[in-house]
Please model this.
Amino acid sequence: MRDRQCLTMLDPIQEKSGAIVVVLVYFATLCGDVFWTASILVALGTSLSVIVNIPLSIAIVSSSAATIFYTMFGQMISVAYTDIVQLIFIIFGLGLTLPFILTNQNVGSVAASSDVWIGQFDPSITSPWIDLFIAMIFGTIPWQAYFQRVLSVRSGRQAQLLSVAGAFSALILAIPSVVIGAVAVSANWSNTTLGASPMALNQSSMTLPYVLHEFTPNWVAILGLGAISAAVMSSMDSSILGSSSMFTNNIYKKIIRKKAQDTETLWVQTVSIFCVGTLATLVSLFVPIVYGLFVLAADIVFVIVLPQLFCAVFFKKTNVYGAIPGFLVGTLLRIGAGEVLLDWQPFIEYPMYSKDDGQQFPFRSFAMVISLITIVTLSLTADLVRQYLCRKTQNNKYHVSEAGTREDPNITNGYSSSHPLMSFSRS
Model:
C-alpha cells in the first residue's frame, strides 16, 4: 500500500468498490475508533480518581480536551512529536515503578505465586479461545492509527521495518503491566486501605492504579499515572486523527466535494477531529458499557473491514457487487451471535451453543471467512456476467451499408454504456 502511495487504508477499497462501500466501511471503522477511544478515556479517568482523587468526569473531559486541542491544530506533526514524548513517559514512568512495587513489604514472591497469576487453561473454552486469538491477531491490522504511520514513511521497505519494530516494542512495553498484575495476585492486601485485593472486590479493572497507589510512594505513583496518561493521550490522538483523515480524504474530498481546495479540506479535517473527539468523550461519560461496545466494534472491524481491505489489495477483480453483500453478510453473522457484555441475546445459535455457556463456536472467524468468500464469489460472478455481456453486445453490432457504418447508439466500442455492470468495467 505504501508503494501504491495510498493515503489511508480506505484508498484501495474506494478504488475497487466505490463510494457506497467506502461509506459503509468507514462507519465500521469509526465505531471502532470512537469506542476504543472512549474505553481508554474511562481507564484514565478511573486511574486519576484512585491516585489523585479527581472526579471521573473531570479527568475524562480535561484529558480529552487537551488531546483534541493539540491534534486539531498540529494534526500529524503534533501527533508524531507528542508521541515521542509520551513514549518516553511510558518507558520511564512504568519502568520506575517496578523496583518500588517489587520491594514493598506487602508484596510476596511473584515467582512463588506463578501458578495463580498464570492460571490454567480450561479445555472447554478451546474453541472460543482460538477464535479470540485469531481475531486479536488479524483484527488489529485494519486500523487507520497504524496505517497513517506506515503510509507516511519514505518507502515500502521502511514501512515494513517500522511495522516489525513496532510489534516487538509493544511486546516489551507490555512487560511492566504483566508484572504489576502478577504483583497484585502475590501481595497481601489486608494491610492496605482496601482491605482486600481488587480481584476479591470485583474491581480487577482497577488493579493497575490500586497497585501504584498502595505499594509505591506518592511521587512514584504520580509518575506512573503520567505514563498511563501518556499512553491514553497517544492512543486517542492517533485514533481521532485517523478517523478524521479517512472522512476528509475518502468521504468529503472524493464523494461530497471533489473540487475542494487544500484550505477547505484542512478546515474540514480540523472540524472532524473535534467532532470525533467530542463524540468519544460523550460516549465515555454517558455509556456505562463502553468496554462491551468496544469489543463489538473490534469484532466488526475484524469481520467486515479486514475482508474488504484484503480483497481490495490482493484480489484484482473485487467490485461493488461482491463488496456490499460481503459487508451485509459479515455484519449479520456477527451481530446475530449476540454479545454477553452488552446483554444482547443471539438470534443465530451456532453449533455448540448453550444458554449457560453462550456461543462456543468460533463465530468471529466463521463470519470473517464467509464475508471474504462472499466478496470473492460474487465479484467473480459479476465479472463473468460483465464479460458475457461484452461479448454479446459485440456480436449484436450491425452495419447499415458497406460504405458507412451505423452502430446502435447505446453501444460504444463494443460495450453497452447503459448496462449497470459496465460501470465498474470502465473504472
Remarks:
- The chain is about 70% helix and 0% strand.
- Residues 398-427 have pLDDT under 50 and may be disordered.
- The longest strand covers residues 411-412.
